Structure formats: C-alpha cells, structure tokens
Amino acid sequence: MTKAIEGFKPDFLWGGATAANQVEGAFDEDGKGLSTADMVPFIPKSKRGMNMAMDVTADYIEDVLAGKTEDVFPKRFGVNFYHTYKEDIALFAELGFKVFRLSINWSRIFPNGDDAQPNEAGLEFYENVFKELKKYNIEPLVTLSHYETPLALTRKYNGWYSREVIDFYTNYAKTVFTRYKDYVKYWLTFNEINVITHSPYTGGGILIDKLPEKTSDQIAYQAAHHQFVASALATKLAHEIIPDVQVGCMLARMQTYPVTNHPDDILKAQEHNDLNLFFTDVHAKGEYPAYMDRYFAENNIVVNKEEGDDEILKNHPVDFISFSYYMSISVTTQGNQEKTEGNLVEGAVKNQYLESSDWGWQIDPKGLRVTLRDFHNRYNKPLFVVENGLGAYDKVEEDGSIHDPYRIDYLRKHIEQMKEAVKDGVDLMGYTAWGPIDLVSFSTSEMSKRYGFIYVDQDDEGNGTLKRSKKDSFNWYKNVIATNGEEL
C-alpha cells in the first residue's frame, strides 16, 4: 500500500524573493550602468495608469537623460540593500531562510550590456553577497534577468526585439556562471517572461513607439522568441559550467476561471490559460505548442526563427518550473459585469466569491492549489513558488510595533493550499515569499505598497531613515519555517 504524503519534504526550500532593481539602490555606484528600471518614475495614484512602465517612451528617456524632468525614480534608490546586505541577510538568517531569491542587475556586470569586459566591482559585490549567504547556509536562487535590461541595449538595439541581444545575454550568463559556480546552483533565466506581452518595455527593454509600423503583439512575440532561444542557450551553458546545477523558467501565472458555465466562457478561460502557459510550454517541452499556430495566424503575428532555433529549444529544456502567484482572474463573454484590478491584467471580471487586497487584487488561496495541480499534470516537473505575497498599507504604532494580521492570514491560507497540493502528489521544491523586506513596488514604484516581514522606514519619494523593524509576521514566518510548515 502506498503511504500518503502528509507534509512538505524535509529539504523544502523556505525563503523570500527580491529583485535587484527594487532593493539595491546605488544605481550609479561602482561602475554600474543604467537599466530600464532606472527610467520608471513614481507617479501619484491620482495620475497613474495600471502599469506605468508601459508609458516609458523613447522621447521620455532622452528627456530624463538630458535632465529635463524632475520626476522621482524610486528604483534608483531601492532600500539600500547594496550597502546593507549584511544586516538584511542576518535578518533573513534569523527568519530561518533556507533559500534567498535575488537577481543580478545585468548593467552592474556589463554597464552597457555589450561591453567587451565585465565590471569587476559588480562581480565582487554579488560574490560578497553569496559569501554572506553561505555563512548562514542560505542557498541563493538567482534570476539572470528581472526587468533589468541595460538601458544602452534599449537605446542602441531596442532591447530584446533585436536578435543581437541573445549573444550579449549568453556572454553575461557565461560570465556569472563561471564566476559563481561554487556559490549558486539554482538559477532562473527570465523573471515572469510572459510579461513581455503586457509591457514590452518592462519585460524586454523595448520601446514600441520606435516601431510604429508593427503591432505590440508582433513586437512582443518576436522578442519572446529571442528570449526563449537565449534561455535555452543559458540552460546549456549552466549545465556545462556548474556541477549539479538546476535551471528554471519563471512565469507570472494568471490562473483564469470562467465566470459562468456557459461553454463560451469556459472556452474563453481556456484560451487565456493557454496564452499564459505558452511560455512554460516552450521552456518545459522545448517546442511551440500547436494551439499558437491559429492564434498567430488570426492575429497577423509572424515569428521569425533562424535555422537551428527549434533544435536549441528542444535540446535544452528547463529542469524545473517556477512562477509567481498572487491572485486568480475571471473572464466572461456574457455582457457587462463589474471589473476588478489585477497584476498587469486589465478588464478582469470581479469574482463574487473572493475578497480583494488594498490594490484590488482578488485573493484566492485555493487557486494556488489549482495552479500547482495543473502545472504538475501538464509538465510532471519539479515546481517552485518563487513569488507570493500581499501588498498592503502598514501602520507603525507609537511603540514602534507593526501589526499585520492581514499578511499572516494571506500567507497562511496560501501555504495551507500548497500543503494540500503536496498531498495531491505535486513535486514542490520550495516557497519564497515575495518581498521579505519592504521594497519598491514593481508595478507602481511605491514604497507604501508593502510586502515585507521587515519594515523599512522610507516613503514613496525616498525620504526616511531606512531603519529596519520586524513586523508581527516576522515571528510568524520564522515559526512556519522552523516547523517546516506544520504550524501555521
């Protein structure tokens, strides 16, 4: 008789996740070049669209570089991790982290992206971070590209729309694989690779206003192909250079439900899910799925491939699949219904059975179990939840305490559903909560949208002492890790 699985495996990787452009700061120190994230301004809520990164244009970038704007660029100062990484990693160790997900800012290693030689100061910084993590037996999980395309590649080549960027990326990957082969065995090639179809600038460093003769979809899917090839080549390099390496892809999972059981709604939800899972299909199965042929034809999208591309994709699939999960999405064909906001998703229909966060994201813990089961059944590969968390307003009390039961409740319910998925037979490697320390929001460039177990004294304009303080959720998550998820 087969014994039922009851909980997380003993070597489950508990931790937290960040991105260089949201925590490091020091945007112009020690030889670092500008990245696309350094051009994304903070816009007050009253003037904000859903995703300000979509509004960055070629003219705007030139105005910023010429000093013609007084905008604030929060991702330039982050939360000063570049100078406080030892203090912050000590807090992560106190939490009991087994793993810490971070990204390398490409322009800190190659300031222009296409430089002949890497910047040694940048290489030394990350080596020091990895040594500090090793001191506490924390495994690094490193993202090669997390919305941090070197700005020079955007201005010179229009980012990932140009095939030439593949070679620059693989040279960067080879450089860091070789330098850090003794420190890092878990790598991700691109963060939320599907975001390129929602914001070509964010996901690919592409200025669509420089290609007025082409549709946004044509631009995005051509660039995505270049990233697929680059990802496969990086996977190949990692396996050649690093012993026991594991390379994963990373998807912004947008689990989509039909609002009704009308067959048209069911089909629409299936189509949404397929467009989302197209990216993991290519990474995990090593080929373009047949359903995209019709989508490309009906939307006048032509993906230009070079000879050998299909073989590269087929021969170098990823070892595991990682993803972000914050909420689910609902769609319908049945007339006008109340809309809701979401992470990069416009026009999503409100799900009457779910509550919403302060930013209108619908909270759906069971959707995480659905997502894990679907991934497991579709790919039969190890899975890793590398982003999950609640952005919320936090209040510092007069005594300095920060009570965040809403965050504990959100995370508890999602971890409970992960445990159920493991009982279902899902091979789950680990869980890194998004933003273990407060950081600059990707989508809105706010500090007031807080995720962390650790509070950082800084406002949306960058004012504050940067003092770190523990929230109530700090001790809660510490106990979750200490009990391997048994006490929630």
Automatic annotation (TrEMBL):
Pfam families per record: Glyco_hydro_1
Keyword Transport in annotation: no
Any GO MF annotation of the entry: 6-phospho-beta-glucosidase activity
EC number(s) reported in the record: 3.2.1.86
Active site: E387 (nucleophile)
Keyword Hydrolase tagged: yes
Keyword list, A-Z: Glycosidase, Hydrolase
Gene3D superfamilies: Glycosidases (3.20.20.80)
Family assignment from sequence similarity: Belongs to the glycosyl hydrolase 1 family.
Protein name (database record): 6-phospho-beta-glucosidase
